[in-house]
Design a protein that fits this description.
Length: 125
């Protein structure tokens, strides 16, 4: 079974920092693009940042200059460094992985897209 698990969320004051991690489990061969998304109460899920396997990044305008996405392909892990946090950053943050190639329990190679369960980030004074 392949899974994504987010960690590192919590409560911080405005101006503070947090580092989110997205770790994987299962016999994963490779992952294409990965990304962070967030969903605030009463709002739709929105893209925060994405990163390709080769390291090309893309950010939402609202987080440019404050957030930094990175990944470790050897560990199939992704990170989101969030600095200068604002109350508007409060949301549940989800990680996503596209085209996850993995060995199934039957030894065959399969591909799927994955979402984590989310981690809550709360920014308030």
């Amino acid at each position: 079974q392949v899974r994504l698990v987010e960690s590192g969320g919590g409560s911080v004051q405005p101006g503070g920092s947090l580092r989110l991690s997205c770790t994987t489990s299962g016999r994963i061969l490779s992952i294409d693009a990965m990304g962070w998304y967030r969903q605030a109460p009463g709002k739709e899920r929105e893209l925060v940042a994405t990163i390709t396997r080769s390291g090309s990044t893309n950010y939402a305008d609202s987080v440019k200059g404050r957030f930094s996405i990175s990944r470790d392909n050897a560990k199939n892990t992704m990170y989101l460094q969030m600095n200068s946090l604002k109350p508007g950053d409060t949301a549940v943050y989800y990680c996503n992985a596209d085209n996850v190639r993995y060995y199934s329990d039957y030894g065959t190679v399969r591909t799927l897209d994955l979402w984590g369960q989310g981690t809550l980030v709360s920014v308030s004074s």
